[in-house]
Write a structure and sequence with these properties.
The complex is a heterodimer of chains A (222) and B (228).
Chain A: H1 11-27, H2 33-50, H3 54-74, H4 77-107, H5 113-144, H6 148-181, H7 197-217
Chain B: E1 6-15, E2 25-33, E3 37-41, H1 48-55, E4 61-67, E5 70-71, H2 77-81, E6 84-87, H3 100-109, H4 115-128, H5 144-156, E7 162-166, H6 174-185, E8 190-195, H7 198-204, E9 207-212, E10 215-220
Helix pairs in contact in B: 3-4, 3-5, 6-7
Bound molecules: adenosine-5'-triphosphate and magnesium ion.
Chain lengths: 222, 228
């Protein structure tokens, strides 16, 4: 997650908007020509609604693409486009919020308390993991003296032998710390938000786009 | 002093890591009284971390462990842990919130304290720990020593009956160590502090236990009797 920036709408409204657009992407029909037109449009509206800075998205997308590449190669173009659009919507939402606003938004989500806690930790640990990955990459670059494409290749090779064991050990230690600190025993209460016009705008704008996308994608144009 | 309640009792405790063929702690017996500050000394690999983890029920053990009068068993784990503040040797793992202040305040709200009150108290704790200015920072943005101070704040703020601290001074600069030793010395909780730092131990502890290859080889109030 990168530097958050000022957005007039409340983080919760932006998160809800992102979630609605994501649903729109996933539900829209990708087997029709209309679907292939509509999916990028949903992704684009996420960028606009979230006012995402493209620079702050670029690195996340690059990292995502590495993992996403097999899907593009193996799947049909429709499925690949659907996945890519959904990824853009997700990344646009998350990268425009930043960790703290995202936390504030999740804690206010109208979801069961335990689900909120789970999502909170997933987000928090994802950021910790991202930074851990950067450190592993740096260590490889410094100790192996390789950079650029070679550096990325070395990192990819290190994923199963360095990254995975580290992540597993880490998960173990974090689990212990959660137990020790009583995380999960007490659930933070959802604090209420006072909704303003702009917040409704973001949510209903997203809803409009999502519904239109689903409807339009089902039209058989040719 | 003798009739103070006992907050930690080990009776012939052995601890073994899964997959290991040797005991990390072997036949260890000890007692700690309320408010007592004990340094757990020993070389690398002597078993300090293993002993702390066993005391918090994070590693399986043989023998018996009592925390604040409660027998440590699966059924009593939650009850025992509510009485313990723990500092892991990798502080990053125990920071669970994206804002420093929320993380420290969490230790108080889990104990049923009101949110506003918890925040104020946490701010004071962070201030005392020398990281008051970082209250609104994200833990990812901190240096190792700063993370250590934040994690410590979260462990100390609710004044648990027993503090189990793994190398709390390891990452601190010299003024930071002095300040921490003074803060510990005045803290009311019983503390078991794993460290190699004899100077630090002398400043804040009134008893010194030396571990060698998982066994207690010395238990004394005279730090002069101990060399590492
Ligand atoms: N996860 C593990 N699996 C197997 N053996 C372990 C594990 N962790 C520690 N040990 C072993 O247990 C023994 C005691 O280790 P421990 O970490 O308790 O030592 P320590 O006194 O804390 O050392 P240090 O000063 O380096 O922190 C060592 O021999 C170590 O190799
Ligand atoms: Mg240790």
């Amino acid at each position: 997650m990168t530097v958050p920036h000022a957005h007039p709408a409340h983080p919760l409204a932006r998160l809800c908007g992102g979630a609605i657009l994501l649903c729109g992407c996933l539900v829209a029909d990708h087997t029709t020509v209309a679907g292939l037109i509509v999916l990028p449009a949903v992704a684009l509206s996420a960028l606009l609604l979230q006012r995402t800075r493209l620079t702050s998205m670029a690195r996340l997308m690059l990292a995502g693409t590495l993992f996403y590449l097999p899907v593009v190669v193996l799947a049909s173009p429709g499925v690949a486009l659907k996945g890519l659009s959904a990824a853009i919507v997700g990344v646009a939402t998350v990268s425009s919020l930043g960790p703290q606003a995202l936390h504030d938004a999740i804690i206010r989500m109208p979801l069961p308390a335990l689900v909120r806690l789970l999502v909170l930790q997933m987000v928090h640990q994802a950021e910790v993991l991202r930074r851990e990955s950067v450190r592993i990459h740096q260590a490889l670059v410094v100790r192996g003296g390789v950079d650029g494409i070679r550096g990325i290749w070395e990192f990819a090779k290190a994923i199963p032998v360095v990254w995975l064991p580290r992540v597993l050990f880490r998960a173990d230690r974090v689990g212990m710390a959660m137990d020790m600190r009583g995380y999960g025993a007490i659930v933070p209460a959802a604090r209420s938000v006072r909704w303003r016009g702009i917040d409704f705008g973001v949510v209903f704008g997203s809803l409009g786009v999502a519904v239109a996308a689903v409807w339009f994608s089902a039209l058989v144009l040719i | 002093m003798t009739d103070l309640p006992i907050v930690l009792r080990f009776d012939d405790v052995s601890v073994r890591h899964s997959g290991s063929h040797v005991d990390a702690i072997h036949g260890c017996s000890l007692e700690m009284k309320e408010g007592e500050h004990v340094a757990l000394l020993g070389l690398n690999g002597s078993g300090k971390t293993s002993l702390l983890m066993a005391a918090a029920g994070l590693l399986p053990h043989e023998g018996t462990i009592d925390v604040d009068g409660i027998r440590l068993e699966n059924s009593s784990l939650a009850e025992v842990r509510r009485r313990i503040g723990f500092l892991f040797s990798t502080p990053e793992d125990q920071l669970l919130f994206p804002r420093v202040l929320d993380d420290v305040a969490f230790s108080l709200t889990t104990q049923g304290r009101k949110e506003g009150e918890a925040r104020e108290e946490s701010e004071r704790m962070l201030e005392a720990m020398g990281v008051g200015a970082l209250a609104n920072a994200a833990p990812y943005e901190l240096s190792f020593g700063q993370k250590m101070r934040v994690a410590l704040s979260g462990a100390l703020v609710h004044k648990p009956r027993l503090l189990l601290l793994d190398e709390p001074s390891g990452a601190l600069d010299p003024p930071g160590k002095r300040a921490l030793a003074a803060l510990f010395a005045a803290h009311p909780s019983a503390m078991l502090i794993a460290t190699h730092d004899l100077v630090f131990a002398e400043r804040c502890c009134d008893r010194f236990i030396l571990l060698e290859a998982g066994k207690v080889v010395r238990d004394t109030v005279q730090i002069g009797e101990i060399t590492l």
